[in-house]
Task: structure prediction
Amino acid sequence: MAGPEHGDIEPRGVRYEQLGRVGHVVLDRPEASNAFDLPAAHSLGVALDTVAAAAERGDIGAVLLVGAGARFCAGGDVRSFVAADDPRAYLRDLAATLEAEIRRLSELALPVVVAVHGSVAGAGLAFLLNADVVVAAHSTRFTMAYPGIGLTPDCGVSYLLPRAIGQQRALDFAMTGRVLSADEAAQWGLVTRVVADETVTREAFAVSESLADAAVGALAGAKRLIRSSWEATRAESAADEVETIASAVTSPEAQERIERFVTR
Result:
C-alpha cells in the first residue's frame, strides 16, 4: 500500500541508506529517544517510499530497521502533543499517519528485520509486531507505557499484540505497567532472538544479508500467506497455499533452485 501524502510537512527524523542488498532504515531522533512527532512519521513514509522503489528495481532483498542513540523508540512524542494548538486533532493525525506507515512494513514483499536496544515503549512496539525477524539486545526493556500518561494503544498494537503473545498476556502487559526483559519478551514471542548488547546491530545485519540473498519471491509468498491467515478460514488459507505454490514452481527463481537441488 502507499503511505499518506506528505503534504507541506517537512519530513525529518528517519533516514535511509542502502548497504549492499539491504535497505537500512534508521530512526534518527536520538535526542528524543526516537519518539515520533508528525514530521518524523512523514519521514518514515519517505524512507519507505525509497525502500519500495529500491525493491521494485531489484536493488535490495531485505530491510533492516534500527534506532540511533541509547534507545530504540519511545513511541509517540508526548511533548509534541502538548505543544499542538489542537492536541486531539494533532494526535489523531499522528496516530493515523504513523499506523499507516508502520503497517507498510508488514506489507512489503521483502523480509523485514528489526534490531532493538535500550528500551521499546508504546508505538515503538508496533515496529516489532510488523517485522518478520526481531533481534533484541540483552539489556533491552519493553513496556506499553500508554496508561502511564492516560492514553490507549495505537498503531495497530491492540490488534497485533494478542496475536503475537496471546490475549491474557497482552492484557497483563497493557494494564499493569509491567516491564519485560529481553529474555521475557523472547519467551512470550514478542522478539525472535536475544543477543549480546555489543553485537545486536551486527547480528541483525547478518540476518538481513542472509535473507536478502535468499529466494525473495518465496519469502514474500510465505510472509503473505502467514500474515493473511488470521483473516482467512482454514479452507481459504489452504486454497491460497495451493495456488501460491503452484505459481511459484514455474518462476525462474524456483526453477534455478530446483535444478540445483536435483543435480547436486
Remarks:
- The longest helix spans residues 87-107.
- The mean pLDDT is 94.
- The radius of gyration is 19 Å.
